[in-house]
Amino acid sequence: RMPARPAMVGAGLAFFGLYLLTSADGAQSLPFNWGDFLTLICAFLWAAHILALGRYSPGGDAFWLTFIQLATSCSGGLGWVILTGDLNLRLTPAVYGAAFYLALTCTVLAYLGQTWAQGRTTPTRTAIILSMEPVFAALFARAWLGERMGVWGWMGAGLILTGILLAEWNSLRGKKRLEA
Predict the structure, then answer these.
(1) Is pLDDT of 175 > 60?
(2) Sheet strands (E) in 15-108
(3) Can you tell me the distance from the alpha carbon of 85 to that of 102, in angstroms, rounded to the nearest whole number?
């Protein structure tokens, strides 16, 4: 199903806002290197992931879908390690403890939460909400590391927020009508 026009415009604003937020000097140049290309491929694959969850999450078992996602990811990662020969199991217990903690909280619980939530919302809404990640990253970098965003960064963050509000415009108007 094609998203509503406000959602499409909101996604476009969020995309452009992300560019302004993450580019070194805003709209002055378009830096594009191998890492940017890989990130772009990852973004398209993540969008496909969100669309697939939008199709299979409603009415599906969130635990089973999460297991499938994690098994697929684990198989791909293990395959890459085998191909490159970069497997190193001689690590300190502290590294294993940190890896277990991060695997549980940042992977298992995050995927389970997203899978459960996507059974109750649209893929478009999910994508727009997830576009807030770099805004929060910039705010935490400021709070914890003292990093400062320039004018272009603030404009990008504002465009992302505007994109979210625009994408949610129809549902916000619908709630106002129900309350009246």
Answers:
(1) no
(2) none
(3) 23
Q: pTM for this structure?
A: 0.64
pLDDT tens, position by position, 118-168: 888 877 778 777 777 877 888 888 899 888 878 888 888 888 888 877 777
Whether 20 contacts 155, CB under 8 Å: yes
Q: Give dist(CA 60, CA 69) in Å, integer.
A: 13
> What residues contact residue 22 under an 8 Å CB cut-off, 6+ apart?
134, 156
Among candidates 159, 168, 68, 53, which has minimal Cα distance to 114? Answer: 53
User: Do 160 and 132 meet the contact criterion of CB atoms below 8 Å apart?
Assistant: yes
What count of Cα atoms within 13 Å lies in the side-chain half-sphere of residue 171?
Answer: 12
